[in-house]
């Protein structure tokens, strides 16, 4: 899960900077609830407390609700026993966990800094999981407004998310805008790894179009899958879906039901294989669902830029992907498509395959440097430290 990886990076950076860091997280794996972690451990100077949940998974809404409710209850019990903190950084999974952070800060003191990886209940309403104006949405919106209104700082991921926060009456001076960083330490252009990964999965000689990461309704793949169906007879085009999430199984089912041999599905790859996996693509797909602009952020694009590889962004005209694409002069490295335009996407993919693999772009890498961990993580650490000093006991 990207948010967990970024929080891990942040915690490690805070510890390296001399801060005392305690992390409270689930004891189960995000995409594989069967995977369990120790209840307590110390990792690279970070004290970790883990929360038990039943691990019912994401196959039904009631399962998610029970997991979230259990997380909230057990997190409350752990936080009540822990000491006062100068700053509590809250992510957004499970939803509105920043409200719990604010309750604890009210009891014990200290600042709260929500790091808004996704914006709920807005996302849940846009996805059809919650009814707008319903009791659950109203309660969640009230909690969101209360917790955000009391936050020392709020970290938004792009200008669209910042606009949404301002529309919710969040103070402009409380909002800090920075994207999630690329993983400089784990991602590099790997020629040998590329060839080995492609050979391992029968992709040698193919033009590989890859979607890598979380497969979620926020990043709808319907247009891509229909394009793959149209291109089933293409001699070299092959679609590779790597990752997990609620929609990953649907991609696999679509390929099986349609009898498509030009689609391969793989699980999340270990961090040590991330370079070879990402380097194996000739064109990366980055998808932003139209209703979700400003609610979620296409963070996978930064690793792609760091490699210098081409990407095809699929989303609305006004979104962060379009902003990034406009900054790359060579359009072969930053193509943009629209949801529902299967014919247009097929043409773009045929053109890309006819051009063939492109060498890594220095312009893309230069743009990626603006979103590197070495640049953005220290900036966020400074924001957090300043928030703590403003709420010192």
TrEMBL record:
Q: Which organism is it from?
A: Brevifollis gellanilyticus
Instruction: Show the GO MF annotations.
Output: hexosyltransferase activity
Tell me the leader sequence span: none
Which Pfam family, giving just one, matches this sequence? Glyco_trans_4_4
What residues does the Glycosyltransferase subfamily 4-like N-terminal domain cover?
4-177
The Glycosyl transferase family domain, residue ranges: 194-290
Name-wise, this protein is Uncharacterized protein
């Amino acid at each position: 899960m990207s948010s967990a990886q970024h929080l891990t990076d942040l915690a490690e950076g805070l510890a390296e900077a001399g801060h005392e860091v305690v992390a409270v997280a689930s004891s189960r794996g995000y995409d594989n609830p069967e995977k369990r972690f120790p209840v307590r451990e110390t990792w690279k100077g970070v004290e970790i407390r883990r929360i038990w949940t039943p691990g019912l998974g994401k196959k039904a809404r009631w399962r998610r609700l029970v997991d979230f409710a259990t997380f909230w209850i057990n997190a409350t019990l752990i936080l009540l026993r822990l000491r006062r903190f100068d700053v509590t950084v809250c992510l957004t999974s499970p939803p509105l966990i920043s409200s719990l952070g604010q309750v604890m800060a009210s009891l014990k003191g200290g600042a709260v800094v929500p790091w808004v990886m996704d914006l709920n209940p807005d996302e849940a309403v846009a996805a059809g999981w919650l009814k707008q104006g319903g009791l659950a949405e109203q309660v969640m919106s009230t909690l969101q407004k209360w917790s955000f209104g009391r936050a020392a700082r709020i970290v938004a991921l792009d200008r669209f998310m910042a606009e949404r926060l301002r529309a919710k009456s969040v103070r402009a001076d409380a909002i800090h805008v920075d994207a999630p960083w690329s993983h400089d330490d784990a991602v590099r252009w790997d020629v040998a790894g590329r060839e080995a990964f492609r050979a391992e999965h029968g992709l040698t000689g193919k033009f590989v179009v890859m979607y890598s990461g979380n497969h979620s309704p926020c990043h709808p793949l319907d247009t891509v899958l229909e394009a793959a169906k149209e291109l089933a007879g293409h001699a070299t085009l092959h679609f590779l879906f790597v990752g997990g999430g609620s929609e990953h199984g649907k991609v696999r089912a679509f390929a099986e039901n349609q009898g498509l041999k030009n689609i391969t599905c793989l699980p999340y790859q270990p961090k040590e294989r991330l370079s070879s996996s990402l380097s194996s693509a000739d064109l990366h797909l980055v998808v932003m669902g139209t209703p979700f602009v400003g609610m979620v952020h296409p963070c996978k694009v930064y690793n792609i830029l760091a490699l210098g590889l081409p990407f095809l962004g699929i989303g609305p005209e006004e979104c962060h992907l379009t902003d990034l694409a406009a900054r790359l002069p060579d359009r072969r490295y930053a193509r943009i498509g629209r949801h529902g335009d299967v014919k247009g996407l097929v043409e773009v993919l045929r053109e890309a395959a006819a051009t063939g693999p492109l060498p890594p772009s220095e312009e893309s890498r230069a743009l990626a440097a603006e979103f590197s961990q070495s640049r953005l993580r220290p900036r966020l650490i400074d924001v957090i430290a300043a928030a703590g000093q403003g709420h010192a006991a």
